[in-house]
Structure to design on (850 residues):
């Protein structure tokens, strides 16, 4: 569920706060929320011709137009407009129909059957059939750029021209959720991705199609007139999708300063990632607003338990958690745009379990940190904290160094170049790192990381944990699976394995001529149902 | 002269070969892995290994090198690891951007800095000299990202004379395209203009103190004639070297400017390729820039001969 605070420049602050509260409240009770501006009167009706054009600032990515080659959030803000999967998610991350109109799952979560909607076409005017779906899933599965999303696939079988079934070797109850995630397998015409051909000739089935694509520079998309939307009210990424603009240009602009300047001069109509430092300035401009939504982008410090002393000592880890003043991280590095929560999973999703996901037994308490450290028998062993991702991660590392040193931990920050940082993380050659990402599917994505020997990254190994995890993976019933997830969550926290700092807000900059854009909790940009007033 | 040029060009082959070997090894010695820049955090070791296999990153390094060298001999730079496109396709559209930027910046340097240096030398110790020296000191000292941001703030955001960033191809009109280059060219040119101003001033002062200038003055030639016809021509030799070599470094060194103004040139491509360890792209760009250096060096040597009749290259 998204909410946003409209710009309140001319309104006194107190009134603005009241208005904002009311707006948040109403936003929470309606399925449509966080529209950029303008009333619904000007909103194009279904069937109205697309009109006008906008320029969108893209902050990174777009190396290729091949959606199988890139799993970066930034690139997917673009792919999502062009490519569609079997299923998608609503505003609470519940799977909803897209190319598939319905699906069934067998009792032990090893066989999934999808019925494809009739009368759908690809951008090359070819109808969508079960063969294309099989091809796309097989292709996706053979590609390593994505996390192991489909699990151990035994086979993808054609049942009839509009039905496919996915058979797995091992249970994976979250398969439909993973296929529905805002970054996942998309359906393309049979053969169209061979040898990376989508990189030069992208063919999807979404409401917009690619007109031109220059890697890492720009892309232009235009409406696809054979698109047949789902007949349901829009909610999150689900429901009716309508191309209301004649042309959308995505421009890759890595520099936040240049992006803000472009938004100010009207060179860009939309900025899909406003830097927290620019929000105040942009909000003060007469024709620009910053849409804000409580986000699901998690910002954390990670620990590698396999790195030996002192991180393998529970007491030391607990001391670390007591020493961290998480609100300070949020205020310092993210200018307060975000929220301090109990963990990675945002309250907006149905997977959130009160009592587990907001369970946090380590509130900031430096005295207790020192005491726990003394009990731990810590002898000033050095701890290296590595950072090398986006700038905020570097800042967080510095804040952490300061806070941890204050209780007597011997922490040194080592800022690394990005590629070096990645390989040290993947190889488990670190003790502590500063990291972040966006929550977009079921909590599995986190829990699998702590499965024994899942990777070299976290070094957590607990037979009991693995047992609960295995059970959750095979449990189709969502409520039961939720309860098992809650156990995993509590376990990780009791063992002081995860160090969540905050969930940062989704911040989109938008020119007032653009209507219908929604700042989304899961930071999944959608350009359908967006129109311009002029 | 012709034989000299051919000989010089042949000499570049071992230079480039040694560079190719060094480069090939160096990019691989640096920690980091192109595959890790592609996969998600939950990718299994088997997936990572599979992708490495698929991209031939597991082949012995000499096999990889020989394959690359063989392709190179045929003018094929290979394929980008992550962009899944031929490197040539990635580089070609970016060459005009960087070239335009470098040439405009050089033009700015020549048009502004050389006259400024000459005037400063002619009025040594006077107001004009002090202004030129102070201005060039600022040019040398202020980092280009700051100059870029300030120019953007004043001329793009406040005055709205130019776009804040981005590149418009020539097909959208000459002026539209050039507009986007004005601020970056000034940013990039500022540093080199400053260097060339100081260089021109020093060179001119040296020439002006020589006997033949004194003789010319004694003969009653006009000040302007002495300055521009007699002195400048001789003072130009070191200046030409600096301007020429600058052009080379402008081609390779416009990283910061391209990034600030978001120009899709070779600099931004090189930067993003280094970040994701896209070996073939890094190798191709560095080789290209080196080749440009070599060629510009040769041109500079030829221009020497045109400027100074005493410089002659033996045809042996």
């Amino acid at each position: 569920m998204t909410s946003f605070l409209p710009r309140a420049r001319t309104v006194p602050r107190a009134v603005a706060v009241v208005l904002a509260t009311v707006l948040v409240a109403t936003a929470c009770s309606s399925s449509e929320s966080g529209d950029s501006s303008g009333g619904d009167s000007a909103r194009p009706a279904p069937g109205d011709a697309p009109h006008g054009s906008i320029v969108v600032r893209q902050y990174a990515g777009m190396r290729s137009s091949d959606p199988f080659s890139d799993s970066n959030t930034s690139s997917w803000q673009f792919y999502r407009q062009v490519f569609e999967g079997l299923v998608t998610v609503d505003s609470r991350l519940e799977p909803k129909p897209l190319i598939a109109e319905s699906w069934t799952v067998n009792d032990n979560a090893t066989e999934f059957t999808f019925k494809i909607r009739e009368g759908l076409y690809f951008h090359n005017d070819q109808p969508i059939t079960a063969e294309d779906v099989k091809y796309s899933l097989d292709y996706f599965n053979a590609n390593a750029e994505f996390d192991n999303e489909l699990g151990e696939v035994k086979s993808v079988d054609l049942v009839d021209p509009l039905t496919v079934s996915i058979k797995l070797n091992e249970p994976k109850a979250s398969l439909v959720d993973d296929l529905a995630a805002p970054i996942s397998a998309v359906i393309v015409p049979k053969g169209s991705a061979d040898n990376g051909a989508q990189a030069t000739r992208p063919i999807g089935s979404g409401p917009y199609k690619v007109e031109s694509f220059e890697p890492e520079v720009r892309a232009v998309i235009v409406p696809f007139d054979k698109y047949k939307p789902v007949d349901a009210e829009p909610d999150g990424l689900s429901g009716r999708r309508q191309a209301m603009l004649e042309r959308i240009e995505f421009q890759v602009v890595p520099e936040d300063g240049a992006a803000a300047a472009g938004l100010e001069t009207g060179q860009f109509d939309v900025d899909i990632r406003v830097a927290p430092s620019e929000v105040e300035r942009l909000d003060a401009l007469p024709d620009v607003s910053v849409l804000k939504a409580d986000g699901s982008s998690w910002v954390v410090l990670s620990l590698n338990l396999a790195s030996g002393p002192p991180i393998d000592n529970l007491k030391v880890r607990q001391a670390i958690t007591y020493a961290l003043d998480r609100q300070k991280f949020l205020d310092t590095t993210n200018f307060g745009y975000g929220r301090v929560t109990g963990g990675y999973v945002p309250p907006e999703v149905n997977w959130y379990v009160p009592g587990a996901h907001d369970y946090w037994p380590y509130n900031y308490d430096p005295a207790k940190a020192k005491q726990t450290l003394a009990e731990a028998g810590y002898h000033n062993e050095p701890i290296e904290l590595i950072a090398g991702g986006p700038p905020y991660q570097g800042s967080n590392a510095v804040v952490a160094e300061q806070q941890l040193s204050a209780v007597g931990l011997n922490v040194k920050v080592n800022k690394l170049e990005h590629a070096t940082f990645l390989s040290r993380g993947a190889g488990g050659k670190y003790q502590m790192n500063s990291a972040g990402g966006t929550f977009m599917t079921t909590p599995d994505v986190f829990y699998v990381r702590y499965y024994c020997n899942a990777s070299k990254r976290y070094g957590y190994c607990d037979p009991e944990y693995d047992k609960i995890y295995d059970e959750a993976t095979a449990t189709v019933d969502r409520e039961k699976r939720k309860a098992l997830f809650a156990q995993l969550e509590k376990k990780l926290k009791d063992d002081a394995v995860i160090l969540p700092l905050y969930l940062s807000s989704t911040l989109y900059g938008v020119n007032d001529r653009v209507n219908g854009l929604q700042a989304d909790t899961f930071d999944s940009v959608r350009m359908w149902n967006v129109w311009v007033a002029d | 002269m012709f034989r000299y040029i051919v000989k010089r060009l042949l000499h570049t082959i071992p230079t480039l070969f040694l560079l190719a070997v060094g480069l090939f090894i160096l990019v691989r010695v640096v920690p980091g892995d192109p595959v890790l820049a592609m996969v998600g955090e939950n990718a299994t070791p088997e997936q990572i290994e599979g992708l490495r296999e698929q991209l031939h990153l597991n082949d012995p390094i000499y096999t990889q090198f020989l394959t690359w060298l063989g392709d190179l001999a045929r003018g094929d730079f290979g394929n980008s690891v992550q962009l899944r496109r031929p490197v040539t396709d990635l580089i070609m559209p970016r060459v005009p951007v960087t070239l335009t930027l470098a040439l405009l910046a050089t033009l700015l340097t020549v048009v502004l800095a050389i006259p400024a240096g000459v005037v400063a030398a002619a009025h040594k110790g006077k107001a004009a000299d002090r202004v030129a020296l102070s201005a060039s000191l600022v040019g040398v000292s202020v980092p280009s990202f700051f100059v870029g941001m300030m120019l953007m703030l004043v001329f793009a955001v406040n005055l709205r004379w130019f776009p804040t960033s981005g590149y418009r191809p020539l097909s959208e009109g000459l002026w539209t395209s050039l507009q986007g280059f004005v601020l970056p060219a000034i940013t990039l040119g500022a540093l080199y203009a400053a260097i060339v101003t100081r260089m021109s001033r020093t060179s001119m002062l040296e020439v002006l103190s020589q006997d033949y200038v004194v003789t010319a003055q004694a003969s009653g030639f006009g000040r302007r004639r002495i300055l521009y016809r007699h002195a400048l021509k001789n003072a130009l030799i070191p200046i030409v070297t600096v301007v020429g070599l600058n052009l080379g470094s402008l081609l390779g060194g416009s990283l910061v400017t391209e990034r600030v103004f978001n120009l899709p040139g070779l600099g931004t491509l090189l930067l993003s390729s280094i970040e994701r360890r896209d070996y073939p792209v890094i190798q191709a760009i560095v080789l290209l820039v080196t080749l440009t250096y070599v060629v510009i060096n040769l041109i500079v040597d030829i221009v020497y001969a045109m400027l100074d009749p005493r410089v002659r290259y033996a045809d042996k």
Summary: Chain A is about 30% helix and 20% strand. Residues 70 and 379 of chain A are 44 Å apart (CA to CA).
